[in-house]
Structure formats: structure tokens, C-alpha cells
């Protein structure tokens, strides 16, 4: 039988083979053998013979991380009630140009079938660690390597416990232990399971191990009458987080720039159980932070209390009151750009009660207010360490442009993003925004009115403007 002589291959093929072999942790000879073995396998046309069961012929696994220019994702579906949403996630990932290979745990198959996953992904679905058709070439290792990213959705409490402790007693956990690609988890479970000390320990361990998380979100659970943190992030959020991972190939106009962003409301305590707040959801500030990270910036996001998960690649600092936010902002300086999107309370209660104020027989207690520190003005007027570009937000319910112009002058910032937050607009807490961007050059103020956009689109457009301004300053 003829032996393989790599030396005789032409240089381009050798280079390709070298890369592939390195990626798969094999010698070049072994990689060439794998390719030949795959090529010699009878090809089973998926559509013709497919029944979605484990008896389906194995799709060749010895393939690179991208097929036909489509980056590959291995999607592991755990046994949670949110597994049905992962069937939609397959479509959302494919819409974004990913090729998706699914792995279902035994418990996941109680909720969704391999047939559904195969039909939606147009590929074989993997379920069995001891499947001879895929294990002829250690398929459990390849599924965590011949891809750009491994996504686990839903990531059950059980799967995370196994990962944190290095178990590998089924196909999903063996892939996760053998993976050499980034891993993105979308946890989903009952709030009591999520808050259980064991899960907290496992999550902390996984984060230390370099595993990435999207969600869980807060809200109603499948269990009747239960609510809290534990809902799986929506498929569209998981797909966006997956895409953000693979974005480094895209232009990164803010690479090397440090952005400081504030978001959300502040809570100003009245006594240990009561506080003054506002209706800010933090969505716009979080979207700006995500867009800045996607543009390559190093982002610190200082947020008041909101029900939003940390955007991928962003350093998030959570605070409660305006004074805590100011301290966190000062500690995060220096920065190249500061965007103050938080709805900071103008006032706080002058003397916070040390104990819960009791309802008495007399008149209600008066709430004496005192002014909070002005975070935007204090940073914009700094003599030292002032970020070169300081951007404030003006949320107004009347005389929007007049108020925004006077805010720009009064606060000493460079730009104001003005938005109408009167209840009829639905901006506060909603997903859309109408922006007027006020910029200042010398004493001249220019106003740009943008069309109604989603908060994500506003964020992308604002980051594009910031990138342009940063580049102009640099050149
Ligand atoms: C109806 C039902 C719903 C469940 N939902 C969840 C869930 O959302 N999250 C979770 O961690 N476990 C959930 N479980 C428990 C898991 O199915 C169980 O821990 C299983 O062993 C997980 O296996 P896997 O991690 O291998 O997929 C649920 C169980 C049942 C019966």
C-alpha cells in the first residue's frame, strides 16, 4: 500500500494542511489520513435518507471551523423547559450566516427531538457519546474543536455543575471538557436553582475558567406564579452574543480606546427599605456599551439598578445611588470618551432614616430633599483627567431642543444626546428612541435630528459618530 508523502504536496496545500492539523491537534499525516477517510465514506444525502434519529449516518466531523465561509457553531441543548426556544435559536444563528451542529442531552430529548434539531439545522443532530459512527474518529473531541464557538442553551444547573467539576459522562459534557474553542452559556433554570449556593459557586468557577455567559434574564418563569432571575436570554440576544464573539474579523474603529459609559436610574434611599427612583430601564446605555465593545473599545459601564445582563466583553460596575455612581466614575478615569446616559436623580433625601420610618398617627413625615452631585458637569469641568470627548444625555418632556442647548452650555460637555421622554413617546423603558444630537464646535451648536430608531440602532449610529470624532482628533 502506498504511503503518504506530505513533502510532495504543493506549498499552498501544505500550508492549508498545516493550519488544519494545528487546529485539530493532529500531525499533518494524521490530518491527511482523516481527510482521505472522510472522502472515502459513502455520502448520505441528508434530505433523502434523513429521519433525525441517532441511526443517521454521521456527518463527517473532520472539517474546519467554517464551511463555505460560514463559521460553525456547536449548539448543545440541555434538558430545560427553554429547550424549545433553542430550536428558534438555530434559525436565528443560521440567519446570521452560521452553520449550526446540534447536540442534545438525554434530558433535552424529553423536551425537543433530534428530528426537530436536524430539520432546522439541516445537519445531523448528535446525542450519543458512544455512537460508533461518530466515534471512529473521536467525534466528541471534534465537536468542541471543529467550530468557532460552542454555545450551550439552555445551560441547565446540572450541565454547569458538571462543567465546573470536569465531568464527561455524556456527549455534551465530554465535548465541553475537550473543547478548545470559546464557550458561551445561556443559563436557564428556576430562580431558586439559580440562586442556590451550589449554582452560585459553579457559575463563579466557570467565569474564572473563562467561560462566557449571556443571561439569564429576570421575568416570569414557566412554573405557575413564579418569577425572578433564571429565564433563558431570548434567542435573538444569544445569537447577537455569539456574533459579537466572531466579530474580531470586522473593523474595530475604537480599538485601543477607553470608553466610560453610565446607564440606568439611581436609587436614592429614604430609609433602609424605601427609595426614590425613576423609570429609566438602562437599555440605551447598555446598547451603547455593547456597540462600543463590538467596535473594539475597552468599555467600563457603570449602571444603576436595572434588570439587564452584562453585555459581552464589557466591564460592568453596578451601583445604587448618584453618589456611588460619581465615585465609580472618578475611579474609572482616565478615559478617551465618556458617555453619561444614566438618568441620575437630581435630588436625594437630606437625612436618610437609619431605621424604617414608621407610620404614626400624625401627618406623614416631610421629605426634605438636597441636591445630588452633578456627575456630567463635574467630569466635563475637570481640570485634570477630563476625557477628550464628554457626551451627556438630556431627557426632557418639553422644550426639548432649547433645554438641551442650554444643558450643553451649562454642563461644559462636548455633545448632548437629547431625547423626548414624555409618556406618549414610550422611550422610557421602551425599545425605540428618537434622538437629536447636539454638537459644539467653538461657540457654534449644530443639531442633527435622527429618525425613530431602535435603541440598538441609535447605539450603533452614536458609536460610528464617536469613532469618526476620535479618528479626526488623532489625525
Ligand atoms: C419539566 C422540567 C423542566 C425542567 N427545567 C429545567 C430548567 O429550566 N433548568 C434546569 O437546570 N433544569 C431543569 N430541569 C431539570 C433537568 O432536566 C435535570 O436536571 C436534568 O438532569 C438535566 O440534564 P442535562 O443537564 O444533561 O440536560 C427540568 C426538569 C423537568 C422535569
Automatic annotation (TrEMBL):
Its EC number is 4.1.1.36, 6.3.2.5. It catalyses: (R)-4'-phosphopantothenate + L-cysteine + CTP = N-[(R)-4-phosphopantothenoyl]-L-cysteine + CMP + diphosphate + H(+); N-[(R)-4-phosphopantothenoyl]-L-cysteine + H(+) = (R)-4'-phosphopantetheine + CO2. GO terms for biological process: coenzyme A biosynthetic process; pantothenate catabolic process; regulation of DNA-templated transcription. Residues 2-40 form the Antitoxin FitA-like ribbon-helix-helix domain. Pathway: Cofactor biosynthesis; coenzyme A biosynthesis; CoA from (R)-pantothenate: step 2/5; Cofactor biosynthesis; coenzyme A biosynthesis; CoA from (R)-pantothenate: step 3/5. PANTHER family: HOMO-OLIGOMERIC FLAVIN CONTAINING CYS DECARBOXYLASE FAMILY (PTHR14359), PHOSPHOPANTOTHENOYLCYSTEINE DECARBOXYLASE (PTHR14359:SF6). This is Coenzyme A biosynthesis bifunctional protein CoaBC.
